[in-house]
Amino acid sequence: MKNNQKQKFPHGFYWGAATAAHQVEGGNKNDWTKWEEQNAQRLAGKKEKIVFTIDPTKDYSDPEVKNPSNYISSIACDHYNRFAEDFDIAKKLNHNAHRFSIEWSRIEPEEGKFDEREIEHYKQVIEALKDRNIEPFATLWHFSSPVWLSEKGGWNGQRVIMYFSRYVEKIVTALSPQVKFWITINEPQIYTALCYLTGEWLAQKKNPVAHHRVFSHFVEAHLQAYKIIKKCNPQAKVGAAKNLIDFEVAGNNPWNILLKKIGRWWGDYRYLDLIKNDADFIGFNYYFHNRINWWFNRNENKKVSDLGWELYPEGLYNILMDLKKYNKPIYITESGLADAKDAKREWYIKETLKNAQKAISSGVDVRGHFYWSLLDNFEWNKGFWPRFGLVEVNYKTLERKIRKSALAYAEICKNNFI
Length: 418
Prior knowledge:
Layout: H1 2-6, E1 14-18, H2 21-24, H3 31-46, H4 62-66, H5 79-92, E2 97-101, H6 104-107, H7 116-131, E3 135-141, H8 147-150, H9 160-175, E4 181-186, H10 188-196, H11 208-232, E5 237-249, H12 254-275, E6 282-292, H13 314-323, E7 330-335, H14 345-361, E8 366-372, E9 391-393, E10 400-402, H15 404-415
Parallel strand pairs: 1-2, 1-8, 2-3, 3-4, 4-5, 5-6, 6-7, 7-8
Antiparallel strand pairs: 9-10
């Protein structure tokens, strides 16, 4: 009994999963759909270079990875029309919270022109969650933007803060009575790095000046959104979802220690330090461990996902302990893996949650966990082949099938216990 008590999560803990509009809704037109049409053929040609050489258990065939249609989101999971069905599944899996995003391009398809039918759609989405006693966590921006904004420079444009603030005020005013938890920006530094440093996403530029400008815009966007939301509803809770990496040194030589300090400042805490006074909580997305041995990414990779990402549950504890310094509630807004065979997901969920519980026992104020993702979905420039879902989606029939690991997670959600 004493041992069991140590493994209990706090009363009122939020259990659920997360989705993003562009990745699951389908049937939309935004900056990503335009980019997909322009780049699908190129992406299909490139993928042959990274076909699962790291994980020998992977059984996807080359034709699937090389098919250009894999890189076109199209109707995705058709969650736009099937959200009630999907929330029934979430309820069946004992989720009491769900993180989703609102698609800006649906709300404001033309500059300054808002679509009231789409606003009503998201009201119905929230009502469907509430009817099932599932707490909505609404994300205002999760990587995708209207086409008209991209034509004005996107997040690198001079007036993007004004445009974003106008959208935020419109949608928050409409939805505020039903939404307590708001997430302003998802993974700002993933977006800035992949668009403006590596050149893999959207802008496809390697421009440090633009990178810095967009980063600054994401800081200001959060600060303005925070003010708008608090004006609409002073009781609302507002934060951002920040990707954080567990940096580890292999040997305590001064060079490794210096690299760790740089990595943590640059990759982990720079954004949080700039918004911490205008955030009610910290949203934390965990996927990556980075072992430093004279340089970055010298990981041992004893266990990896289908994407070749190292599975290192211990890193979640390390980051949570670091986040304690902010003295704010923490929500694990994403944590998951691509695992088509569902061979490692249950293990990974349980081990990450054990590490979350360990941090809670050490005084860290963790209040919720959202597995990524509820559904298999469209994984941006990687397309459909990575399978992150608790629920398997047949992309030909759109049939949903609950995975075994989802049932194991459901028991944890039900019992508030690991």
